Amino acid sequence: MSGFDWVVPIILTVITAATPLVFAGIGELVTEKSGVLNLGVEGMMLVGAVSGFITALVTGNYFLAVGAAALAGAIMAFLFGVLTLSLMANQVATGLALTLFGVGLSALMGQEFVGEPIAALSKLNITGLSDLPFIGPIIFGQDVLVYLSFVMVALVSWLLYKTKAGLILRAVGDSHDAAHSIGYPVIAIRYLAVMFGGAMSGIGGAYLSLAYTPMWAENMTAGRGWIALALIVFATWKPGLVLVGAYMFGGITILQLHAQAAGLNVPSQVLSMLPYLATILVLVLISKDESRIRKHAPACIGKIFHPAA
Amino acid sequence: MNGNEGGTPQLELRGITKAYPGCLANDHIDLKIMPGEIHALLGENGAGKSTLVKTIYGVLQADEGEIIWAGSPVTIPNPHTARKIGIGMVFQHFSLFEAMTVTENIALGMSGRQDMKILERDIIEVSNSYGLPLEPNRQVHTLSVGEKQRIEIVRCLLQKPKLLIMDEPTSVLTPQEAEKMFETLRRLSGEGVSILYISHKLDEIKELCHKATILRGGKYISECDPTKETAKSLAEMMIGTNLRAPEHHETANGGPIRLKVRDLSIDADVEFGVNLNAINFDVRSGEIFGIAGVAGNGQIELLSALSGETICRNPDTIMLDGKPIGRLGPNPRRDLGLAFVPEDRLGHGSVPEMLLTENAFLSGYSRMALLNGGFINNSSTAEYASEIVKEFDVRTPGIHHTASSLSGGNLQKFIVGREVLQKPGILIVAHPTWGVDAGAAAFIHQTLIDLAEAGAAVLVVSQDLDELFAISDRIAVIAEGRLSVGRELNEITIEEIGLLMGGTHGMGETAGAADVA
Amino acid sequence: MKLRGPPMLLKIEKRAEYSKTMVYLTPIIALVLTVLSSIVLFESLGVNPIEALYQFFIAPLDTKYEFSELFVKATPLILCAIGLSVGFRANVWNIGAEGQLTMGAIVGSSLFIYFPETDSIFLLPAMIVMGALGGAAWAAIPAFFKTRFNANEILTSLMLVYVALLILSLLIHGPWRDPAGFNFPESETFSDSASMPILISGTRMHFGTLMALLAVFGAWIMMARTLIGFQVKVIGEAPRAGGYAGFSRKKIIWFTLLFAGALSGIAGLSEVSGPIGQVVPSISPGYGFTAIIVAFLGRLHPVGIFFAGLLMALTYLGGETAQINLGLPVAVTGVFQGMVLFFLLACDVLVHYRFRLNIARKVTSQ
Asked: Which site among C221, C222, C223, C244 would you substitute to test the B interface, given the most B Cβ atoms closer than 10 Å to its Cβ?
């Protein structure tokens, strides 16, 4: 096994790089399935990241920190809901506003905490199992949020496709007028979906500030919220594929970090471009097939619902 | 079962009133339906029928009045409650989810949780027993309009309703399909189910219904026994005045061919679209050529190919006054004299949030020379818009108001007027009077006839057979992307057209180039 | 017998026609709400709100120099926002102005970097043209991907921001670094012939401001009076009506992106040739993103954008003043800008809808 020792740390870092994307992606997927496009993922992640970090720093309680991040994300998403669902503002513009606001708000909240170190979220350590070679650290040695991310993907998958609640959620995204005329509370359902998306983005952000790089820095999400949005297109709105996509992007991010560390003779900036270029490439490849996108995208996405009569 | 005057009505409405800003949609409406009665709700577009039934189904709340269900007053705050007490509704614009299966759609229309397996079995059972066959696992977008309507009906029947509301159910059916649906309704009536049947089609109301309540302008007008009325007397109650039939012109067979379509085939570019299959027809100067058909049989694709929004592969496919225009876009076609009135007034024929002046400019800028060295000539644009408003009796406070502020009929008059004033050699009109009040409809019909008499060729695509019979010289039918041979009005009956609309029959005589030339 | 009417409820009703009054009123309402909220914000930061508001909005305009700084900061904001607004009108959501600005700065400055000895009077005009081309080329990438592959321009244009910033970093840490610059990641200082002429001596107000004014007037005429402007509006409001009128959506996507890219590119070049005077790793403090707010606050109208640009420039200056005099964190500016946009979007409901109080009533039957 010793020849493959370098593999384990790479896989471990891929997992930590992918986890924030899994959370943000799966949350936004639920939002979009209900027919709402929230482009504020980046802003919600940042506010989640800073809220989680401050809570962890002040209380030392990581459970509370994750809860605070989820709450902060959900509050941000609620704001988005008030504007787009109740006041019928344009979803694209409001999403951008949410991101711009989130960037500013998180910077303000975190300005006294920049550079303060905290301990990273602790990892599972089951005597015996976690020490197993190779699979030990990968399967039994993760922090609790990594496991939670997998649980959330499974949960969302089950909820969307195996329950009446999920059927209703998809119905609202497919035709809000039909859902309304049958008697479903379209706006209320969308509020829930949007706030779930916000909570997940918040946790995804907190993963960055609590586990990935346990510290707070302005704009530390560095576009991950936008990559999560691209992931959903990549996954054609399927929960399982969001997971796959997130690990792919996690892999690319880590690959370039390792290539830089290995002293590859390529400027670091070029390597740093890779995740962004990969996102563009993936978008182009997936979107090329327009009919496929149209078939899978929720038909009402981005449309304003006003129950006229 | 009908007419047991002495018993308790299944549903009684007293003084239902509902106001919208600037309009009283329902003004103290009374209505009474006995168990097993098929009761027609008759009225023009805008008479308040939809508002009233949505109130019964709990989608809307009345401002005033009361609803009495089987003898006791009730409030129906939402459709769930309506379903619970035994009211089912089949919407005119279906409340279906295209990306889902038949079973999922039906589950969504039922309260509580369902076991999908059991539900599937129930669907098959009920749909077969009422002659409404359905495959539970099909995705809705793959179904025909008639099948989609069956889903809605089966969804209601599964909940064993005591009152079934049907909103303009035959508007999307062929006459034969409609007849089959009537059988189902009669059977339900025999089983004691009350049916509230909304329509503005007088013949079918006379054929099917026991009672009729007539609404006009949001007000209750009268209740009558439709079997004892004539279509004319019903129409008068519905419209209020004697309607002038459009003055029909002499059939001008001799006119030269202005629009010639040969072997037009187009593969639908969108999912769920219809492929056009070797379409052939001519429209001559001085004639109105009508194309009938159930929506979704290729009308959208045909209109888009004719207007230039879809470009054909071969320029010779469409000839305008002898010039090949198949590969031209909308603007060059318009410059050659082809004008088009689309089906969707708001968002296709006009920009809803733009002013009437801007909407006049939209299609008229080239032919009416409203551009001045690359700049928009505001004064001549305003003149053009004013002329449309004046000549075509568009009721608006002024040309500097948005298209969306106009009523359906007035906007339609504006759009038709905009195209007619461009003096087109050929005018293509889609559903000219859909959702338009009777006055505006008569005006638009007369306009089209006058235009044809002045030598233009007019092509009308419509679902409304009455309309086509009133104004066309020749009629063809589009079904599943194929067009039948155009026939003189006096050579064809409604029944034949109905069969052609069904799509399976009569396609042997699909127009070949030789037949029409 | 009684029937309960609906409970008391605030209902939102669609207006028959949008309210022209509200179009002008809502930005002002939004500003008032923002100011009220920032009073709460300042209070919570332990700063006297009146003092803070003074430092934010009045103090930065004390002197002629400071007043001119307003135009210096507003110039890139207005240039970018004019470009973005035309795209937004057409529902083309280019949010990558920051990247296009950076690319314009890079491509425009390359002329000076590679020909530093040139003292031709044509150097600066050529740099401006190159800047416009660089920005437009960067915006052409999302346009191509959108029209050819249907790829969402929001995501592609944003991803390209990061790429552009990394390219800038690559150049400035490598070949473009001034050899006499003590290893700082900075280019050589621009020569006079490569710098924007100063408009008023003693200030930093430069030729770029005139270009921004030109863009305001040009865009105004374009949107109000020309066919292409009309096409942009129609495609944005009702794409099918655009198709009906024979307007090409792809052409409009290309046009709006190239237009925005060119203006953003000029904005970037104006920064490096103007107030900065050399190529540095950070050319803009997020002008390209703030321009999104400027565009909306200006109601996507060129004249509105001019005033909105000045206002947002003031928040940059005010943020600095408040930081120096009150120790308020600079991040307050970002929060403030975000809030303005939020409140504006919230107030926008008043343009198309009206609120009506639905009062419960009891109907007693006879």
From this structure: C244
